[in-house]
């Protein structure tokens, strides 16, 4: 069985796992430490469609879970090292999709995973969820560490952005009073 796993976790962080057997998403379900996506499809060809579909499923889940975005922080910003790799993520749950991606992954593959799919994953997620996302690699030479740090830092920044801010008193975090897809 071929599979694709994209993980972002640590003992104090929510677990974001995208596991698939192919190119079409079968279900998205909530588990105790995060979200798991199960997919079936055409990994015998390549992981491109699986990667894209998993990102879209997660993006759609984020979009639906945010609703009108009342009371959330809206912005998330986090940096973290993983050995020699240091990655920074800044995001805005604005409803306006944009990806600024600056990773230099030195190898074409990590195991059987095509490292070009990291950018495609985040582009698909951004376009589906409507978030503005900036990803910057500040240092690192090991492809595995760069990718793992990216997903971990993304999960932490997303958690920060979606946390409820009691000071907002349930208001929408926008001077326009509205955050939606444009």
Q: How would you sum up this structure, described in words?
A:
The chain is of the alpha+beta class. It has three helices and ten strands. The chain has a four-stranded mixed beta sheet. Strands 5-6-10-7 form a four-stranded mixed beta sheet, with helices on one face. A two-stranded antiparallel ribbon has the order 8-9. Strand 8 (109-110) and strand 9 (113-114) form a beta hairpin. Helix 1 packs parallel to helix 2 (117-129). Residues 1-32 have low confidence and may be disordered.
Helix content: 25-40%
Described by strand count, sense and barrel closure, the largest sheet is: 4 strands, mixed
Cross-sheet strand order for the largest sheet: 1-2-4-3
Low-confidence stretches: 1-32
Order of helices and strands: EEEEHEEEEEHEH
Distance from first to last alpha carbon? 40 Å
Note the beta-strand portion. Answer: 25-35%
Main structural class: alpha+beta
Instruction: Let me know the average pLDDT.
Output: 78
Record field, number of beta strands: 10
Radius of gyration: 16 Å
- The general outline is globular
Number of helices: 3
Keywords for this entry:
182 residues, alpha+beta, 4-stranded mixed β-sheet, 3 helices, disordered N terminus
List the helices and strands and how they pair.
Elements: E1 4-8, E2 15-20, E3 24-31, E4 34-40, H1 48-66, E5 75-82, E6 85-92, E7 98-102, E8 109-110, E9 113-114, H2 117-129, E10 132-139, H3 143-162
Parallel strand pairs: 2-4, 7-10
Antiparallel strand pairs: 1-2, 3-4, 5-6, 6-10, 8-9
Helix pairs in contact: 1-2
């Amino acid at each position: 069985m071929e599979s694709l796993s994209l993980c972002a976790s640590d003992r104090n962080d929510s677990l974001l796992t995208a596991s698939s057997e192919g190119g079409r998403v079968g279900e998205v379900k909530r588990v105790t430490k995060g979200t798991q996506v199960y997919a079936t499809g055409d990994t015998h060809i390549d992981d491109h469609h699986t990667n894209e579909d998993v990102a879209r499923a997660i993006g759609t889940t984020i979009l639906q879970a945010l609703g009108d975005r009342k009371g959330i922080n809206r912005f998330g910003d986090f940096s973290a090292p993983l050995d020699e790799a240091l990655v920074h993520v800044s995001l805005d749950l604005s409803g306006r999709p944009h990806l600024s991606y600056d990773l230099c992954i030195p190898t074409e593959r990590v195991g059987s995973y095509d490292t070009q799919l990291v950018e495609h994953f985040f582009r698909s997620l951004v376009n589906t969820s409507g978030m503005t996302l900036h990803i910057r690699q500040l240092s690192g030479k090991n492809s595995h560490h760069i990718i793992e740090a990216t997903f971990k830092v993304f999960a932490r920044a997303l958690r920060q952005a979606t946390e409820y801010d009691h000071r907002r008193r349930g208001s929408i975090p926008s001077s326009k009073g509205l955050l939606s897809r444009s």
